[in-house]
Amino acid sequence: MSSYEWQFTILFQYWPIFLRGALTTLEITFAATALGLLIGLPVGVLRQARSRWVRLPVSVYVESIRATPALVQIVWIYYCFPILFGLQMSAEVTMIVALGIHTGAYVAEIVRAGINAVDRGQFAAAKSIGMSSLLALRRIILPQAGQKMIPPFINEFANIMKLSTLGSTIAVYELLQESNNLIATIYRPLEIYTFLALVFFLITYPWILLSQRFEARLQRRA
């Protein structure tokens, strides 16, 4: 049996460090989510366009983002943007932009799936009373699809929160990076990583639970 002596009490004196990391994590999460919605909502709608020339570029964006790891996207933006575009962003802004672009592709798929889940006959009914495709989409299809999108949107938000730990690779002082710095100071990796896992569970699981409840409510209404 291991003789390791756990010393969680030592972590209490470093609570400002964990708080600072948690605030940075939440800041990145909320900002990246907002950017992802701004990108993903119109892209998801455009993926339903009849014109191939409209669908093609947005489909390339969605599939290329979904086919590459988020870490590669973060590192590419951080190191390649200054070279290619002369745009040097801070590490935290890079994380927001990279995760926003990453999330936008998944939000677009959620929107596309939500629209496809609505009975296609409702498009025909809307057109039969003189509505344009855009008006039918705005007034009839999206309000119904939006209800179905809520659970996956919440899940995606929780996923962004976990992906924010990738910021440690470019020295963003979120929870993981702050924890790594603290380990280098007090040499208690087991306690710190265990506590870190607990913190992420506490800030992530409520969103997952909320998503499950929304989904269960929608199933009862169906």
UniProtKB/TrEMBL annotation:
Annotated keywords: Amino-acid transport, Cell membrane, Membrane, Transmembrane, Transmembrane helix, Transport
Cell compartment(s), UniProt: Cell inner membrane; Cell membrane
Membrane topology note: Multi-pass membrane protein
Signal peptide: none
Predominant localisation class: membrane
PROSITE patterns in alphabetical order: ABC_TM1
Origin superkingdom: Bacteria
Coiled-coil region: none
Occurrences of domain ABC transmembrane type-1 (ranges): 22-211
Cross-referenced CDD domains: TM_PBP2
Residues passing through the membrane, by range: 28-46, 67-87, 192-210
InterPro entries: AA_ABC_transptr_permease_3TM (IPR010065), ArtM/GltK/GlnP/TcyL/YhdX-like (IPR043429), MetI-like (IPR000515), MetI-like_sf (IPR035906)
Record function comment: Part of the binding-protein-dependent transport system for glutamine; probably responsible for the translocation of the substrate across the membrane.
Record family assignment: Belongs to the binding-protein-dependent transport system permease family. HisMQ subfamily.
Protein name: Amino acid ABC transporter permease
